[in-house]
Amino acid sequence: MTTTLSATKPAPARSARRISWDILRVFAVFCVVVEHVTHQSAVNHPELAGYPFVLPFQFGASTMLVISAFFVCVTVGKGRPGSWLWNRIARLLPAYFVAVLVTYVITRLAVTAFNGLHFSDGDWLFGTPTASNPWLFNTWNLPTGQDLLGNLLMVQAWDPSLHWVDPSYWTLPIQLVAFACAAFLARHKLMTSRRVPVLLWSLVIMPIFLRFFVRDPGPQWIKSIFDGLALNRVALFGVGIAIWLWSKRRMRFWHLAGYILAALVSLDWHTYWTDTSSTIAVGIVLIFVVFAAGGPDWNIPVVRRMTPTITWLAGISYGVYLTHQVLGYILSRALLDIGARPWERLVASLIAAVVLGWLMTRLVERPAHRFLSDAGPRMVAWIRRAQIHAGRLGTSPARPVPSPRPVSQASTVVAGPPTSGESLPSMLPANSQSR
Fold it and tell me: Is residue 11 part of a domain?
């Protein structure tokens, strides 16, 4: 009997998770971290220069946007678009808000010490300081309460008077806008086979036109809109969509290759051809993204032994991204002040990024995501019950317009014929429309 039961017991289903995507996520995020620590830190704060090596190519964040767009296409059609959008918001925003607050407080404390500031009113959190040595050279900006509010509202890119609490946050507003657009398109089924190519190529061509014929010669408010929406980067979302279409055999390879090339040219064009090396680096990484999308998983023996570590790092990658830049600069400056050597500062910055990313993921991102993911459906159900209850009480009729049928005529349960605003072909399956 025992043998029979064990023989008929179904084998556990294998996970569909592909290690290749985790490798790309980890690679992209830590390229951002290393570039910020070794290169951008010296640009913003020259005293932090002197690391053993420098990674000057800015391609990690661009790769992350491409991967994000790819997985939007993979997931947006599964379930209701509204629930999908709420799930994305529940994951991104709570951790972002906490990261802004923590970075603001630590920056105020650190810059006060670095710049020799003191506050006559004792309000070090929001007050205006005075320098004990007005001739002290420094490159550290002290964020204000106005900066904090602007960053929490994600409008810092729209107002030139605001400073970024952390410059790495520039990807968050445009990702949220992209998610909202994806949910809208999926909800209304606007992404047909004829419209997708128009959308893709408009993401490349329109920003170029707006940049050189509208933004650059235009007033500041136009520049603020263009920069706030990061229209110079939207072609990267198009690349992610194109790679997904190709992986589903809905785009030919030559079309994909031409589109990626056009998107890369547009990226370099937006920088006035001043950072071609970074654009080439983006192109090289995109080759591996295409391989990950269309080829077999990279689950080779060497990678298989590292899978737990890679998966863990991929799981905390968003937390690492939120906490590594400005806090890493502050740590590097503190270590420099006590005589730490370049290698020590570099290793300490990388370890701190991982530890802070893990804490953000464990203490904020995942608990908030679970709570809000459960709270969203409960709130919708509560609103629906309230509407039904109000309708029964006569305060909110279910049908504001009287029915043309007599009262004695039964109402149908199934969906009726198309209304005047809905054509029959739009309700048929795709293969029915093509016949």
Answer: no
The three-state (H, E, C) secondary structure of the chain, written as one string: CHHHHHHHCCCCCCCCCCHHHHHHHHHHHHHHHHHHHHHHHHHHCHHHCCCCCCCCCCCHHHHHHHHHHHHHHHHCCCCCHHHHHHHHHHHHHHHHHHHHHHHHHHHHHHHHHHCCEECCCCCCCCCCCEECCCCCCCCCCCCCHHHHHHHHCCCCCCCCCCCCCCHHHHHHHHHHHHHHHHHHHHHCCCCCCCHHHHHHHHHHHHHHHHHHHHHCCCCHHHHHHHHHCCHHHCHHHHHHHHHHHHHCCCCCHHHHHHHHHHHHHHHHHHCCCCCHHHHHHHHHHHHHHHHHHHCCCCCCHHHHHHHHHHHHHHHCHHHHHHHCHHHHHHHHHHHHHCCCCHHHHHHHHHHHHHHHHHHHHHHHHHHHHHHHHHHHHHHHHHHHHHHHHHHHHCCCCCCCCCCCCCCCCCCCCCCCCCCCCCCHHHHCCHHHHCC
Q: Which of 130-139, 198-207, 340-349 has the lowest mean pLDDT?
A: 130-139
How would you classify residue 79: left for phi > 0, otherwise alpha for psi between -120 and 50, otherwise beta? left
Is residue 380 in a domain? yes
Burial of 294 (0-12, 13-18, 19+ CB in 10 A): middle
Q: Looking at the predicted structure, is the pLDDT value of residue 41 above 60?
A: yes
Q: Is residue 422 part of a domain?
A: no
Residue 380 has a pLDDT of 62
Q: From residue 340, how far is each of 43, 47, 150, 238 by CA, in Å?
A: 20, 13, 35, 44
Question: Who has greater pLDDT, 418 or 102?
Answer: 102
Q: Can you give the pLDDT at residue 134?
A: 54
Residues spanned by the domain of 60: 17-388
Query: From the CB of residue 140, how many other CB atoms can be counted at a distance below 10 Å?
Result: 19
The answer as to whether 32 is a domain residue is yes
> What's the structural domain count of the chain?
1
Above 60 in pLDDT, residue 405?
A: no
CA gyration radius, the chain:
26
What is the rounded (10 degree) CA torsion for 33, 37, 39, 42?
Answer: 150
Which of 244-253 are b and which e, b meaning 16 or more Cβ less than 10 Å from the residue's Cβ? Answer: bbbbeeebee
